[in-house]
Write a structure and sequence with these properties.
alpha/beta; 6 helices; 24% strand; binds S-adenosylmethionine; seven-stranded mixed sheet; globular
Length: 201
């Protein structure tokens, strides 16, 4: 295993170092199945944000399905990796930005979550949830994969069902909560596909 200099996942340097050393155990290597189905089942194309996109496999799939999507990551090495994955034609849709500062140019229909909340120290969760809520108007959705685990060390930093409910229920209503069938090793048996709808107010 690589020997890492950076230990603080709140810093872009932490993620740069891991992308540079090609140590990315969270990387699915493609588009997860339940997201594919969700995109295919969508009655209309959506405008989607992918925060902390990493390799951003999902971006091309969304575009090919007629969606408008933007992928953001604050790690220059992650952005470089994503631009290779998405290709020259879509490279402009991968933006180097901090999730807490990035501003949409048009209203979002959806935020896609995968391995972003669990990349943050637990103390930052309330900030993430508040920012999700700020970026989505009532009726817009937060959908993706949530990691459930109580192990103290991370990333990934897991959450319990009760904690997630407490975190999101002030802003969101849970519409779908399902087991995941194609998890990679680090998340196997511990992640669920969830769709949350932004509440009014
Ligand atoms: C565990 S990786 C997951 C990447 C991707 N979502 C995936 O499923 O493969 C977490 C990513 O979030 C990014 N990240 C962490 N904090 C961020 C922030 N405040 N703003 C933007 N990106 C951030 C990291 O650079 C890293 O690429």
């Amino acid at each position: 295993m690589a020997d890492f200099q950076t230990r603080d996942p709140r810093s872009p340097a932490f993620w740069d170092e891991r992308f540079d050393k090609q140590f990315t155990p969270w990387d699915h290597g493609g588009v997860p199945a339940r997201l594919r189905q969700f995109v295919q089942d969508s009655p209309a194309p959506l405008r989607c944000l992918i925060p902390g996109c990493g390799s951003a496999y999902e971006l091309v799939f969304m575009f090919d399905s007629g969606w408008d999507a933007t992928a953001i990551d604050f790690s220059p090495a992650a952005v470089a990796a994503a631009r290779i994955v998405v290709g020259e034609r879509r490279a402009g849709q991968v933006v180097e930005a901090d999730f807490f500062a990035w501003q949409p140019t048009a209203p979002l229909d959806l935020i896609y979550e995968r391995a972003f909340l669990c990349a943050m120290p637990r103390a930052m969760r309330a900030q993430v949830a508040a920012r999700w809520a700020q970026l989505l108007a009532p009726g817009a959705m937060l959908a993706g994969y949530f990691f459930f685990d109580e192990h103290a060390k991370g990333p990934p930093f897991g959450i319990t069902h009760e904690q997630l409910q407490e975190l999101l229920s002030p802003y969101f209503e849970c519409l779908i909560d399902e087991a995941v069938t194609d998890s990679i090793a680090v998340f196997a048996g511990k992640e669920r596909w969830m769709v949350w709808s932004r509440r009014a107010g």
